[in-house]
Amino acid sequence: MSTSADRVVVVGAGVSGLAVARELAPDYDVVVLDKGGVAADTSSRASGMISLSLEPFPDGWATFALDQFRELDGRGIFSFAERETVRLVPKEDAEKYTDEAPTGGEFLTRDELLSQFPDSFGDLSAYGGGLVYDGTGYLDALDYAMTLKWQAEKAGAGIFRDHEVTGLCVDDGTVTGVDTEYGPIDADHVVYATGWKTRELLAEYVELPVRPLRWNAVVVEPESPLPDDCPLGSEPTMRVYWRPTRRGDVLIGGNEHLLSDPEETPMGVQSSFRETVLEDVAPLLNGVAGGTIRREDCCPTADCASPDGLPIIDAPDEAPDGLVVVTGLHGRGVMLSPVTGRAVRSLVTGEETPFPTSGFELARFEDRSADFEYRSHWD
Ligand SMILES: Cc1cc2nc3c(=O)[nH]c(=O)nc-3n(C[C@H](O)[C@H](O)[C@H](O)COP(=O)(O)OP(=O)(O)OC[C@H]3O[C@@H](n4cnc5c(N)ncnc54)[C@H](O)[C@@H]3O)c2cc1C
């Protein structure tokens, strides 16, 4: 474990960096540095879908993350709304699920869906039914980030905004700290949780196969509020997802795609996405056709894709000792953040994690170039 001299500098105060700080602050001198504000980049724009149980991931990830969201529920300004998720199944695909649904899901016919959620759906005539999952829910990503910050600070972490890290300090193959615009800061461990920027920031030390990734999301106010039990959902042909909000609106997201240069790309929600939402998605939900767009979210810079859709959370062999990287969260940075925090804790302390972490290792990629095809969650 740590000595009184052990300091961890975390670069990046998005949900990943904050989750790391919360995990390590009770035992280490933790300093978080962000060039902007806390969760001011991609993290505050996240839709707050918590749906790890829909994915074929090791069971331990969803369970660990859910336990943490449940434990935090009601603390500070954070609340976690547990709701089922319905993955709509087009008529032509329904037959394949009537005998056997994918692990974790239960297939309901359209009539069964309408009877289980009588006030939530609108026109489902194109669908044979839906796969219903539990162990899912939603949160407000900014409230969550602020609650992680509060907990990390309560445990002694120092979190500093407007502190750009300009370089890593390395002596004889071991990290000794970071350089910032205000001067160097010593550290025994340095964790880079800087999203897609991590590739260029650490290029001198390790090659990371990650690319910027854009998502679109809008909040629509229905003619009347959605019911309290409205499930989260997704539609596979349009590749969109939705979730209710606490005030009865609906957040609809999707249309993710890779970007070459986020800084040169207009980051507003794309008009084609806005049209899809209003014309094709809104009628699926009760009272949302004819609703009004109240808010639009797109990353101010970008989220970060990896070639296989899983993050890189590792202390790579070829990197200097004491360096940990967290990048490539691929649209799941919020829902995975408890897992991220604990995985980094394990890399720093050597403790075991209660879930498998081999899927996070950089060594799984032979090709480290950023020239890879996008692997969507939908495929
Ligand atoms: C519209 C949208 C919807 C999404 N919906 C969901 C969802 O429903 N569920 C989900 O789990 N995920 C979702 N995501 C993805 C999620 O937002 C990201 O995966 C997550 O926020 C990544 O967090 P991060 O902390 O790794 O990176 P970021 O939030 O990008 O944080 C990186 C931080 O590093 C800082 N930084 C960069 N360079 C430096 C430097 N040199 N010095 C100091 N600081 C630096 C930046 O300022 C930034 O604050 C969504 C994303 C978007 C855009």
UniProtKB/TrEMBL annotation:
Membrane-spanning ranges: none
UniProt-listed SUPFAM superfamilies: FAD/NAD(P)-binding domain
Gene Ontology CC, one term: cytoplasm
Domain spans labelled FAD dependent oxidoreductase: 7-345
InterPro entries listed in its UniProt record: FAD-dep_OxRdtase, FAD/NAD-bd_sf
Protein name: Glycine/D-amino acid oxidase
